[in-house]
Amino acid sequence: MPVLCFERSQKRPKGGVHMKKYEIMYIVNASLDDAAFKTVSDRLHATITENGGSIDKVDDWGVKEFAYEIDHMKKGHYVVINVTANNAGVFEFQRLSRISNNVIRIMVVKTESEK
């Protein structure tokens, strides 16, 4: 008679939404004025908090020159944020970044490994 093993199922997380830590860098069009830049960044940051996540740190690097032209632009406003978020928040952040004409590039990196 086979023996049932429940050890594997006991290691799975029970309910709730699993939050992970991410570092997100995005580059905004440098030709925007301060008010427009703040509007773009606030809208992007709101997608994380509206989906149950939190923004742990915002690091504004300012306007930097590119190594090569991107979409006929030579400069961009760099922002790096550290967030704790679920997948839905990160996917929505990426979706809004892709459809925005003011966001030039985006990179999302998971900073903590799953245990």
From TrEMBL:
Claim: Nucleus is one of the keywords in the record: no
Record GO biological process: translation
Keyword Ribosomal protein on entry: yes
Single Gene Ontology MF annotation: small ribosomal subunit rRNA binding
HAMAP family listed in its UniProt record: Ribosomal_bS6
Protein function: Binds together with bS18 to 16S ribosomal RNA.
Stored PANTHER family: MITOCHONDRIAL 28S RIBOSOMAL PROTEIN S6, SMALL RIBOSOMAL SUBUNIT PROTEIN BS6M
Stated family: Belongs to the bacterial ribosomal protein bS6 family.
Name of protein: Small ribosomal subunit protein bS6
Species for this entry: Holdemanella biformis DSM 3989
